[in-house]
UniProtKB/TrEMBL annotation:
Superkingdom: Eukaryota
GO biological process, one term: RNA modification
UniProt keyword terms in alphabetical order: Repeat
Coiled-coil annotated residue ranges, if any: none
The keyword Phosphoprotein belongs to this UniProt entry's keyword annotation: no
Protein name per UniProt: Pentatricopeptide repeat protein
Length: 275
């Protein structure tokens, strides 16, 4: 086409880039990027989006990110492509980090969820990114719907998935869904995860189930700052001020004891010499 003096339009270029991505033809896709896109259609949003998608599908997420960052105009498919690209390449945290940026730039999140639900690559990383992102954007119902879909598709949640979904239940004050997720998690190693347990405490306390929250807290083999804080605030928010104060004192004593035990202890022989 170029040899005949004909310039391809955006539809032709997008189609070629899509084929490159689906066939992981990185060399040809890169040549197409350099020889055509940069020269003739540098600012086209559809071509930019196709490049983001092509590089991600070829495993070149760094190049995908560069194209995305340079795009002055992005549409909903562009955002979906970069999130899907991060998830496809195992960069779950980077995928999740895109959601606050979308919220800041006032991207229409209702369109986003429709696009994400049709993502071609769905594993535990990409699904968890969707669940966490939806929860952060105030789309708690969509987050729980995604959890249900991923489980129906046979994708097993991990600890981070359960934790994110439980936070969505807490925001919705949906104890029925929260208990169901608790039941699912109890059949896996996720229930031994301190962050899953902390999310359970927060969910139960937020829904007014303080006794259930304390049962989770009491059964935890190991607790961190988040779990102590979740239980103390859970008591306080539900009017159990005495229990909250009692637990806070217990926590402070444990912290002080831990500091004492970790500090250098005096040598017994030196003590005897001094005496």
């Amino acid at each position: 086409m170029l040899g005949d003096g004909l310039f391809p339009n955006e539809y032709t270029i997008c189609g070629a880039l899509k084929a490159c991505g689906e066939n992981t033809a990185l060399k040809f896709g890169t040549q197409l990027h350099g020889a055509i896109v940069k020269k003739f259609c540098k600012s086209d949003v559809f071509i930019g989006t196709s490049l983001v998608d092509m590089y991600a599908k070829c495993g070149e997420i760094a190049n995908s990110e560069k194209v995305f960052d340079r795009m002055r105009i992005r549409n909903i498919v562009t955002w979906t492509s970069i999130i899907s690209g991060y998830a496809r390449n195992g960069s779950g945290e980077e995928a999740i980090s895109i959601f606050p940026l979308m919220k800041k730039q006032k991207v229409q999140v209702n369109k986003l969820t429709i696009a994400l639900q049709h993502m071609p690559f769905r594993d535990v990383v990409s699904c968890t990114a969707i669940i966490s992102g939806c929860s952060r954007l105030g789309l708690e119902s969509e987050a729980l719907a995604c959890l249900q879909e991923m489980m129906e598709e046979g994708v097993l949640p991990n600890s981070y998935t359960y934790s994110s979904a439980l936070k969505a239940c807490a925001k919705l004050e949906a104890p029925v869904q929260g208990k169901l997720i608790h039941s699912y998690a109890s059949e896996t190693s996720a229930l031994s995860n301190v962050f899953v347990n902390s999310a359970l405490i927060y969910m139960y306390a937020k829904c007014g189930y303080v006794a259930d929250a304390f049962q989770v807290f009491d059964n935890m083999p190991k607790r961190n700052l988040v779990s102590w804080k979740a239980m103390i605030l859970g008591y306080a928010r539900n009017g159990h001020r005495r229990e909250a104060l009692k637990l806070m004192i217990e926590w402070k004593l444990k912290v002080q004891l831990s500091k004492f035990m970790s500090s250098p202890q005096p040598n017994p022989s030196k003590v005897e010499t001094i005496m």
